[in-house]
Design brief:
Distance between the termini of chain A: 18 Å
Strand content of chain A: under 5%
Radius of gyration of chain B: 17 Å
Oligomer: heterodimer
Largest interface: A-B, 31 and 21 residues
Helix content of chain A: over 70%
Number of helices of chain A: 4
Largest sheet of chain A: none
Number of strands of chain A: 0
Number of strands of chain B: 0
Chain lengths: 138, 135
Amino acid sequence: MPPLTRWLIRTALIYLVLALIAGVLLAARLLWSLPLPTAGLDTVYLHLFMVGWVTQLIFGVAYWMFPTYSREAPRRNPLLGRIVYGLLNAGLVLRAIAELGRTAQGDVWSWLLVLSAVLLWFAAAGFVVNTWGRIRGR
Amino acid sequence: MPPLSRWAIRAALIYFLVGLTLGMLMLINKGVPIDPTLWRLLSAHTEFLLMGWVAQLALAVAHWIVPRFRGGDYGRLRVAWLSVGLLNAGVLLVGGGTAFGAPDWVTLTGRLLEGGAAIAFAIYIWPRIRPLGSG
């Protein structure tokens, strides 16, 4: 298992735990009034789970197990792989913080949401570019 | 990696990028309002990412790695292709239909096709779910 895959899977596991904690908070707020920024928490819960856990786990396993690109570059571009890892996690953490901190459209948190959207899109595009050439027979 | 898996994974990657692009547009619109009708893309965003990306990738990888029959035989390949065809038709109808405001029967048809895809894939893969080297 290459180092980047280990990082992706470990990080994915952390997001799984965080997502489930967010799920607990969502359920708890139905019973008690919590001193927490619960607006946007449902969106954060969903995206921590689907992007942080599911998508990141897919990235890690695909990087590891998909057919090699070539003898010289079996995983195509390892640098791009690391950049994708950075963009994905920076975008997701920023998204979660901005969703919870945001109070009105156009405030600083809203601009951070915009930035997170761009970071996540480039992470996805980088993954597709790095993976496409490895979808082959051997 | 067999041809069916290659086609389905490529399709899944396209849905991933399209679904993420729709999500990016909605997220930007959430932060800085551009056009309120962009929220109409939410169902397509969800459909493309859950069914087009995650579900399709899972089917494609299962077809690739689940134990094959003696001699490397995959089993009823036509059923597997039918499943992938139904899934993609369904995702396009549901995602495209909701994004472009198509009548509800379009979404219903899409969901039925997706259900058919699930049944076809289960019928196809079921006999291959067994210990390695068992015939």
